[in-house]
Amino acid sequence: SSCSSAPTVAYAFLATSNLPLWSIVWSDYLSSCPSGSALPIVHTQSRDVMVRSELSKQIERFGGRLIPYGLSHQGDPRWSFRMVSIMLTTFRQATNESTRARNGCRPTHIHVLSESDVPVRSCSDLHSLLASSPDVSRIDVIETRPSSPSIQLHNGSVTQPILKSSQWLTLTADAARALADDEFGISLRWHGI
């Protein structure tokens, strides 16, 4: 089928309020994607009805979805499990059985972005990259060392490197759904339980 021959990408925007770069960058970028293959999904913390209404209007043209306010997470997500929960909420929305892009296809990949991100490659280049390895998630992993010898890792070691990934990643829909389905288990691991 046509849905299995090319990627359909859910662009999961994590926003505090609106998407300030939408009219400058993202509307044109998503318009340049292969026909109907880009689906914006927006998680905003804004309670403002006008902000939420404007976001809905912006993404509707692409069949986009705004995470309902009742499912959105509030507060500063930096350095907390709240960021993980926000991401998992967008993964659940993107992989929901009823979620379809304008091309009629369910997303094959979820690309995570912030409100201030700009594309570093064209949409067709990203979709071509994903099509070349459709079952591969794209996660940047860096190796770092604790900044202080007093930092203890869960295993008690302070000398082993820490592997850290960027929160901005592209996952296959199957991988994203598996993570979203395991939010409770991830929370337990996050909190060292």
Any descriptors?
35% helix; two-stranded antiparallel sheet; 5-stranded mixed β-sheet; alpha/beta; 17% strand
Task: Report a brief summary of the structure.
The chain has 193 residues and is α/β, with parallel strands linked by helices. 35% of the residues lie in helices and 17% in strands.
Explain what this protein looks like in three dimensions.
The protein is α/β, with parallel strands linked by helices and 193 residues long. Helix content is 35%, strand content 17%. It has helices at 2-5, 22-31, 49-60, 81-94, 123-132, 173-181, 183-190; strands at 9-15, 38-44, 65-66, 109-114, 141-144, 162-165, 170-172. Helix 3 links the parallel strand 2 and strand 3 (65-66). Helix 4 (81-94) packs across helix 6 (173-181). The protein is globular, with a radius of gyration of 18 Å. The N and C termini lie far apart (44 Å). Residues 159-164 have low confidence and may be disordered.
Q: Which secondary structure elements does this structure contain, and how are they paired or packed?
A:
Blueprint (H helix, E strand, L loop, with lengths): L1 H4 L3 E7 L6 H10 L6 E7 L4 H12 L4 E2 L14 H14 L14 E6 L8 H10 L8 E4 L17 E4 L4 E3 H9 L1 H8 L3
Parallel strand pairs: 1-2, 1-4, 2-3
Antiparallel strand pairs: 4-7, 5-6
Helix pairs in contact: 4-6
